[in-house]
Inverse folding.
């Protein structure tokens, strides 16, 4: 069968993810250990796995805030810095036409991260701030994604992601240290973010070859790991804090 003559639903589905030569290697030659194609398959699998996971990665955090009706222990400034880094990566990847599997989680994480900040304002009864936060963020993202922002500007913004990521996690880590507990931070969300950013190091190298994005994810993994360590370190104190908060409401 000549190149380009693969017909049927299965070949079509496979070639949505893998190049045709990899379909040939895997499903015609049955060479499942072809080095280049195996790397592509692993990268695509991880990439879409991260995206699927990102749909729910911050839901435990959102649910925890809603159930407790409190954003105690969550530093909104740190959340905003994190949202900024996510949004810069999203806009930079779109402008460079990187495959969705290399950056798609940024879309879902941006929605959830902005929701967390908004809920923190909401439960402090700062309704106007909550509305302004959401509307301001949507306006900024329209400018970044509409094509009116030059690629050089987006590249410069992406370059700032490393200090932004570090700063966001250091602010949250300082808040945790000052409080002596991690408040309403969700352990599930923190650990999933750490694992997700670690997996992204491999997929970014494989799918984009972009050194700036790769370094950003390496730094992000280390920064997330600091907060993850604090979640474990302050586990018992956080449980005590949660019980005290609950008893006050009861």
């Amino acid at each position: 069968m000549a190149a380009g003559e693969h017909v049927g639903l299965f070949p079509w589905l496979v070639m949505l993810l893998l190049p045709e030569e990899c379909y040939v290697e895997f499903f015609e030659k049955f060479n499942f250990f072809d080095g280049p194609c195996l790397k592509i398959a692993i990268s695509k699998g991880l990439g879409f796995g991260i995206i699927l996971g990102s749909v729910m990665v911050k839901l435990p955090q959102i649910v925890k805030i809603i159930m407790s009706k409190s954003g105690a222990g969550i530093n909104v400034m740190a959340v905003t810095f994190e949202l900024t880094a996510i949004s810069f990566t999203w806009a930079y990847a779109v402008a460079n036409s990187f495959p969705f599997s290399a950056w798609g989680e940024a879309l879902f994480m941006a929605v959830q991260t902005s929701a967390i900040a908004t809920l923190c304002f909401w439960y402090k009864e700062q309704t106007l701030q909550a509305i302004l936060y959401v509307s301001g963020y949507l306006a900024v993202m329209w400018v970044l994604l509409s094509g009116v922002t030059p690629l050089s500007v987006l590249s410069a913004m992406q370059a700032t992601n490393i200090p932004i990521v570090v700063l966001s996690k250091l602010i949250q880590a300082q808040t945790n240290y000052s409080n002596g507990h991690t408040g309403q931070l969700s352990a599930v969300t923190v650990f999933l973010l750490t694992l997700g950013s670690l997996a992204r190091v491999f997929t970014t190298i494989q799918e984009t070859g972009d050194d700036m994005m790769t370094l950003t994810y390496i730094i992000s993994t280390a920064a997330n790991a600091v907060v993850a360590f604090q979640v474990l370190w302050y586990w018992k104190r956080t449980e005590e804090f949660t019980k005290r908060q609950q008893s006050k409401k009861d």
Notes: The chain is about 75% helix and 0% strand. The chain has a mean pLDDT of 87. Residues 37-249 form one domain. The CA atoms of residues 8 and 87 lie 38 Å apart.
